Amino acid sequence: MKFWQLDSPGNALALICAEPADNLNYHALATRADEFIASLPIASYKRLGFVLCRNDVASVTAYLGALRNHDCVALLPDRLSTQALATLIERYTPDWLLHTDPQAEIQGYTRLPWHGKSILIRQNSVSEKRLAIFPDTAVLLSTSGTTGNPKMVRLSYTNIAANAQSIVQYLGLNATERAIASLPIHYSYGLSILNSHLACGAAIALTDEAVTARQFWELFKRAEVTSLAGVPMMWQMLQRLRLERMDLPSLRTLTQAGGRLAPELIAHFSQISTERGWRFFVMYGQTEASPRIAYVPWERLQDKIGAIGIAIPGGELSLSAEGEMIYRGPNVMLGYAENRADLMRGDDLGGVLRTGDLARVDADGIYWLTGRSKRIAKVFGNRVNLDEIEALLESTLHSPAATLDGDDRLQVVLTAGNDEIQTQNLAMELLRTHLSVHPSGLQIRTVPVLPQTSTGKKDYAALRVLFTKV
Q1: Domain range for residue 382?
Q2: In a 3-state reduction of DSSP, which class is residue 97?
Q3: Backbone angles phi, psi at 46, to 5 degrees
Q4: What is the pLDDT of residues 159-201, one digit of tens each?
Q5: How far apart are CA 355 and CA 373, in angstroms?
């Protein structure tokens, strides 16, 4: 089923909001999505739209409207810096944008009001010659969180529909489910929650509140939420909040992805799930796979703590001769894009994804990650290219630097002379601005000189020891 067709009974609840008057059933959601597209000028070609997302009705309806109209839509964080947005607009020349600022102005675009936001329409876009977009291209998602890197993942309608159906199948979702938007919808994990629940006629409670906020749990209880999803940092917070002591009678499923969760936390939430009658799913994925690739069946979690599990329904896992994990499935992206011209490209991968992760498979067919073949870190669920951040630090601070993956944190080693504290403060501010992450996601150390291997390369193993010392 194509979830964007919104084929569930029209009176079934689809979106639950902080204000009950703003709730939408499936009929109203389809109407609102079509109204969004109807507000745009008629075009004879496939368009590209940008949505600066919040977990709200306007963002969801713009996204679904684009899919229903067979347009292509890029989902971006609303906190994207002005400079980063300008770079993306220059690279991709979107035909329209949904902006969170009701007074937004962008040169070359005409503004129209839309439910407290702005639709910005590219001037003369109907008459000017536009580069054709590959017909099956549906969604563009960032590969690097909020860094503003113009590299985007190209997902097809087939990709997102297939992954939504796989998730529905292995989680056993049905129309009685009610999820809560605990993750942003511009993030592939958060988007997959929306897609999979719409695919089975379920409802989603929309909120931008953090799990530490009272309003989050008020909505959770009022909406009678049945499932809670989180990345590693969120599960750390939920442990401190003592989730097991909360009065949550409707809750029945927990899901985790977005990076490696410490084994002790897996054991903790697995145990309390057993005690409370919940199911706890540990999952693995990449944006390039729309995004789900593997999961650990909840019944086997206690015996497989630390594993990523088995392939999702319709997918297949294998190992290359070098031990790299290969995934095959209908949810594998078409390829990458760095500009509008790249949207003309078709399917570059043919359903085969080299994950960049090294793995092993045990006698039960369960996969375990053993390392990475690429220098990629995950910080609060956002993928970060370590080499890209390293280059940014060195070019800004004019001194050697090194970056490492530190279990849902970015670890940075700087070289500094007499201004050690000033150098650390500059780096912290730079990374906070560039990555839009909380300082708790960054660990910074300084050394007089970076250690080197015998071949003259940075000795990352030696540098990692710095972060094992108290």
Answers
A1: 376-467
A2: strand
A3: -75, 125
A4: 999 999 999 999 999 999 999 999 999 999 999 999 999 999 9
A5: 9
Rounded CA-CA distance 353/15 in Å is 33
93 and 25 part of one domain: yes
- What does the alpha-carbon distance between residue 310 and residue 293 come to, in Å, rounded to a whole number? 8
Distance CA 232, CA 209 (A): 17
What is the token pair recorded at 444?
A: 């910074």
What dihedral angle (degrees, nearest 10) is formed by the CA atoms of 153, 154, 159, 165? 50
Angle between helical axes of 420-435 and 386-397 (0-180°, round to 10)? 130
For the chain, what is the mean pLDDT?
91
pLDDT at 58 over 50: yes
Q: Order of strands across the sheet with 227-230?
A: 24-25, 13-16, 203-205, 178-180, 227-230, 253-256, 279-285, 292-296, 310-311
Q: 61 vs 17, 53, 441, CA distance in Å? A: 14, 11, 32
Mean pLDDT of 256-282: 94
The two tokens of residue 294 are 């593997």
The domain that holds 318 is classified in CATH as 3.40.50.12780
| Token couple for 406 | 């530190």
Using CA atoms, how far apart are residues 59 and 347, in angstroms rounded to an integer?
A: 27
Helical spans, DSSP H, in 241-364: 263-276
Task: Round the CA-based radius of gyration of the chain to a whole number and report it.
Answer: 22
Q: What is the DSSP letter of 126?
A: T
Number of domains in the chain: 2
Q: What is the sign, positive or negative, of the torsion defined by CA atoms of 309, 276, 256, 54?
A: positive
